[in-house]
Every structure is written in C-alpha cells, then in structure tokens.
Amino acid sequence: MSNEVSRWTKATVYPDMWVNPDEDPRNTDGVSPDGELETLQDYLSDYRMTLRMKCEGLNAEQLARRSVQPSTMSLLGLLRHLAEVERDWRNWVTSGDPLPKLYGKRGADFDGAIPDQSVVDTAYTDLAREQEATDALLAGHPDPGERVGKDRIAVRELLIHRVEEYARHCGHADLLRECIDGRVGQ
C-alpha cells in the first residue's frame, strides 16, 4: 500500500484549474475594477479567497500537516501566520505602541499549528477578525499616495505588500494541498 496521493481537480474545462470558471467565486462579475485602490483591493480579496479555498474540505490533521522537514509550514500555520501579519500591518499604519503578537513569540504561528479542531476554529476566527480590523483602519486612508505611521509608508506600498504576502502564501498553499490529497489548480 502506498502513501502517495494521485493528482486531481474538480475542474473539467481546464485541468489545471481548481474549479470550473463558472463555479469560481473569485471576481465573478468578469470585469476588473476601475482605479488603483479598487484594483489592489480586488486582488487582495481574490488571494484571501484562494487561501480559504485551498483549506476547504480538510480536517484538523490535514490542515496541520507539515510540508517537509525542517519546515514548520502547514495550511493551518499559514492561516495563523496571515492573522499575525494582518495584525502587524496595522502597526505600520498607526504611530502608537505596537499591538501584541497573537500567538506569542516569533514562529509561534507555525509552531502552534497543531491538529486540534479548536486551534483550527480559532485560526479562522482570528484571521477574519484581523482582516476586518486592518481593512477598517485602511478604509480611513483612501488615497494610495498618503503616507501613514511612524515610518511614513505609502498606503499603496502597504496594499501591494499585502497582495504580495497573500500571493506568495497561496503558492505555498498550492503545494501543501497537493501533498495532502493531490488536489491541484490555481
């Protein structure tokens, strides 16, 4: 008996897609938004949804499964890491004392990603809460050229960094998911 998984997809139109285009919940109106801010927010929204899609249908053990030694990366770790990162981005916007880390010391987001349903539930709750809080804070800064925080970072740079962070981790999620159950696609 082999532990190898077979590659598969739900898509029937394009074999390298996650789902068929008419079943894809991302950017369903088919038209890209007008404006720099709206475009960046659209990309961020799609990458956030992609990460959630890569985690759908998996149990706590599968979500916590590590990639390869010595890495501590897992899908659950990515959810926790991105909650931590969302919180930290708010520190870039404000000038006050930084918010405390959600999971403790550096690396605890991945190290604490254990196969326990309560840890999974908390990770999803934390991520949604931190995303909403960061989005709400940035909604008060609609000019992408505005400089914010003690380092005077441009809102544009922060938004691009957020898109980059999710895009990079969605690439990791592709490989992690394929190793877990063989499902492939964008």
TrEMBL record:
It holds the Pfam family MST. It comes from Arthrobacter pigmenti. InterPro entries: DinB/YfiT-like, MST-like. This is Putative damage-inducible protein DinB.
